[in-house]
Amino acid sequence: MVAGQSPIVVAGHVCLDVIPAFLPRESSEGPAFRPGHLIHVGAAVRSTGGAVSNTGLALHRLGTPVRLIGKIGDDLFGEEILRLFRSQSPELAEGMVRVAGEVTSYSIVINPPGVDRTFLHCPGANDTFEASDVPSGSLSGASLFHFGYPPLMRRIRENQGEELVKLLTRVRGEGLTVSLDLCMVDPDSEPGRADWDGILKRTLPLVDFFCPSVDELLYMLDRPAYERAEAEGGFTPQRHVNREMLRQLAERCLQYGAAVVAIKLGDQGLYLRGTSDEMRLRSAGKAVDPVRVSEWTDCEFYSPCYKANVVGTTGSGDCTIAGLLAALIRGEPPQDILRSAVATGAASVEAPDAVSGVPHWNVLEQRIANGWDMQQGIIKF
Asked: Whole-model pTM above 0.85?
């Protein structure tokens, strides 16, 4: 592969994840976190995290050429990110923007067995990432541009997403298909108080494949419904999601301008909806096979997850997106893209870090062909 050229460019949030290993306990409820209480853990796994790493490295492991673009500092955490990328393949570190005096982003990932993960996160250099950090030369030879986690990037989200709009406008101007992923925010933080409805109205006309999770989307587009669910003991897809909710959320995103919406449902699967506007799909960039436009038009699909031996769920949504994008540039039809997406996500949870459970594309396809069982889904069609 020529440096700077690849079918997919993945840009946005990047960090170093530190993941303590939790030891077996007699209780199935996981450790109790109490002030002054010591919890005995094992060795920590250090891995790169954020959308750039999780989606980008998952694509690399699937065998899809990818270029990574993120912003880091000149500190030890930044050096560790570069080392970890180079250990996968030397060219994966070439697109990283390293700035003297910046603090590299990091997360402490608390991921005990049987309990949903919690993050302690420092955004670091992600907060100063801007459109100019993606040079035009980095897009040469690419067909698809994926951007991840704008809520955790201050300059990207501020002023109603002005820098994100500037960046995606330039990318679309070069004919690339654009995909966008979000992340959940702390409601009491500055990102949580941002006008996400307004930001999405400005941004989604520039997004061909919009890939949020259902809780992120509900929080940003229907805050009262999200807060009611939280008051009932916490939002979960099993208790609060149904087909009508997904249709309403997807339709709103399509009305805002997205061509296709893929809503992640955690361990309950993936929902896919395409616009009824065929011309919008025909303008969706190089990665969309013109022959398949009619298959995407007004499509609606749902798939539950494949069964997996769950070790850790960190990055599973990002890996699901990687499977979707890898299948898209291979020219697969929507239903097969959906299958490949949930398969990649299921494979990823069979390892404690985000991506080491993701196999090569051929291995993944063979596992599916061999009759990989699916879980019971929550949506009936």
From this structure: yes
